[in-house]
Amino acid sequence: MIYVCVPVHNEANTVGLVLWKVRQVFTAFQREYQIIACDDASTDASAEVLASYARVLPLTVIKHRSRLGYARSLEELLRLALQRTDRPKRDCAITLHADFVHAPETMEEMVKRLESGADLVVAEQYREQGRRSWPERWARQWAPRLLRVGGGVKDSISGFTALRLIVLRQATRGGDAALLTTEGWAANAELLARLGAHARRIEVVPSAARYDLKQRPSRSSPWQQLLGAWRSRDLISAARKGSATLLVLALLTAAQALLAQDTICTGKIVSAHPASAVPFPVGERLSFGARYGIFSVGSAAMEVMGIDTVHGVETVHIRFRITGGALWYHLDQTIESWVGRYDFHSRRYSSIQDERGHHRENRYEIYPDSGYYREVGRDTTFATVLEPLDDAAFLYWIRTVPLEVGKKYEYARYFRPDRNPVIIEVLGRERVSVAGKKWQAIVVRPKIPQGRGIFAEKSETHIWLSDDPQRIVLAIQSNFSFGQVTLKLKDYVVPGVTRP
Questions:
Q1: What does the alpha-carbon distance between residue 114 and residue 405 come to, in Å, rounded to a whole number?
Q2: In this predicted model, what pLDDT tens digit does every residue of 263-288 receive, in sequence order?
Q3: HEC sequence for the chain
Q4: Long-range contacts made by residues 465-471, C-beta under 8 angstroms, separation at least 24?
Q5: How many CB atoms lie within 10 A of CB 150?
Q6: Which of 31-35, 147-151, 277-281 has the lowest mean pLDDT?
Q7: Residue 189 half-sphere exposure, CB side, CA atoms within 13 Å?
Q8: What is the pLDDT of residue 243?
Q9: pTM to 2 decimals?
């Protein structure tokens, strides 16, 4: 997860464009992200702009009733990101200004550097676009020389930083004591000095300073900023020198730290994979014949297609397809799901259906860590549940959960919250003959309130699962518009399992 931290004070003219640019960056460079903005008692329309974007983006807004300043706002944002993460070695935060001086497209390269092993990445802004007064240029040039933070960083006051959250956690172990005690440019340098004490590797990337897009004059004079840098130089120097001892210790234990660090910013595993939450092997295929009464009306198949990467996460691609018909009726439906290999959470869902000459197609991108989903082709995002599943994923997930005869289970896991809970009733055990043998089966009745397809409440679907560790789907019975259709297993292939 990437937490983009945006302090805001009277930035109504630019903050919306900055947020939308963040969305474009992480749509093209697919990573799960959240935006956290702090409205520091703005007196313009910043609050209204943030509220409107919060309806369509994964955006959380913190509101200050009275102005607390840049440093307090920035620290609050970073601490909230640290509070939200449950994987600080993997997740990261990026500090981004709302006035468009920071170029959001630089974030892609910053994240790549973190993924390559850096703990702290600084975007240095020596390449300027747009005009500024000579005092502003002079102060901007000299302030970093007063506030040296080491680690190869020359532009210590840019404020455009990406950091692994484990570094922030180590820097704030002192409890509730303030992390930042300075203000303005000096606060940016202080943040780097304090984080640098715990960063094993610091890198810099070039980034343009977009003063041509800035819509307001600076709030403080360059001389005030330069005077603040002069007064803060001893504090920054002390933090920098204090970091030297810690850095030596960090380097001495770097090998152990690398082994302990299980993941990086994208969620890819560095050392060893945890046990897979999806126990079904690639290549598993269940083939069914479809019958309407005594008539054969089509076929169906459930298949584990392969391993893909979606939104930077390793996923298992599964598919269920049914095709057939008789006389006036024809149905061809394919539902596909991409579920996290190590958490069994849906990341992508697709449903394509041709029925009686009508074509319907829906595709969804699901972001469990960000807590939202969106339909492809629409910009609006909607909240999702903590551990989302879709229709195709449920067909497989139901094979992994304990099922006790006579019990009724409810799960709030459907990715569209308004259709929860998913209800599973365990009706009993039966002996069935399919695929050339007799099986002991568990019979379940799943339903999704207000859902569509085979799990719709009106479909009255029953599923027969083999009462063994494989939990193979033996039969599915469901109501269609013209009557009841039963899918019976004809053949199955489960790699690694010998058929009797």
A1: 50
A2: 344 443 333 445 678 888 989 999 99
A3: CEEEEEEECCCCCCHHHHHHHHHHHHHHCCCCEEEEEEEECCCCCHHHHHHHHHCCCCEEEEEECCCCCHHHHHHHHHHHHHHHCCCCCCCEEEECCCCCCCCHHHHHHHHHHHHCCCCEEEEEEEEEECCCCHHHHHHHHHHHHHCCCCCCCCCCCCCCEEEEHHHHHHHCCCCCCCCCCCCCHHHHHHHHHHHHCCCCCEEEEEEEEECCCCCCCCCCCHHHHHHHHHHHHHHHHHHHHHHHHHHHHHHHCHHHHHHHCCECCCCCECCCCCCCCCCCCCCCEEEEEEEECCEEEEEEEEEEEEEEEECCEEEEEEEEEEEEEECCEEEEEEEEEEEECCCCCEEEEEEEEEECCEEEEEEEEEECCCCEEEECCCCCEEECCCCCECHHHHHHHCCCCCCCCCCEEEECCECCHHHCCEEEEEEEEEEEEECCEEEEEEEEEEEECCCCHHHEHHHCCEEEEECCCCCCEEEEEEEECCEEEEEEEEEEECCCCCCC
A4: 465/398, 465/399, 465/403, 465/441, 466/439, 466/440, 466/441, 466/442, 467/429, 467/439, 467/440, 467/441, 467/442, 468/440, 470/494, 470/497, 471/399, 471/400
A5: 19
A6: 147-151
A7: 34
A8: 46
A9: 0.52
Position 470 pLDDT exceeds 80 = yes
Q: How far apart are alpha carbons 54 and 294 in whole angstroms?
A: 55
